[in-house]
Design a protein that fits this description.
single chain, about 110 residues, mainly alpha
Length: about 110
């Protein structure tokens, strides 16, 4: 936990303000005493208010079947992500690291069952 927290963790996008308020100081450093005092349930479970808000957000995503903004339920707009990437001038991986691979499953019958 401490290794991850030293990198300002809370979730993938570091946008969970509730966890940041519980386990980090104003400078963004992990409050090791607070983390040590907490059990696993406290470390990973959102408050009732946040859980209900996340459920409502995710239900909207599922009902719309729109994953334009991803599948993650976010209560507020994310601040620590690129909102637009200009592929002409933006930093991207070079051709060596680009792959044209189709990873979809092949559901055609194979003659067996």
């Amino acid at each position: 936990m401490f290794t991850a927290c030293k990198h300002s963790c809370t979730e993938e996008y570091r946008e969970n303000t509730e966890i940041r308020a519980r386990f980090f100081d104003a400078a963004g450093r992990v409050d090791e005493d607070a983390v040590r005092a907490a059990d696993v349930y406290t470390l990973i479970t959102p408050s009732r208010k946040r859980a209900l808000a996340l459920n409502k957000t995710y239900l909207t995503i599922v009902r719309e079947q729109s994953y334009l903004y991803g599948r993650d339920a976010n209560i507020e707009p994310m601040q620590k992500v690129y909102h637009h990437v200009n592929f002409i001038i933006g930093p991207t991986f070079g051709p060596t690291y680009r792959y044209q691979t189709d990873i979809r499953l092949d559901w055609k019958p194979t003659g067996g069952r």
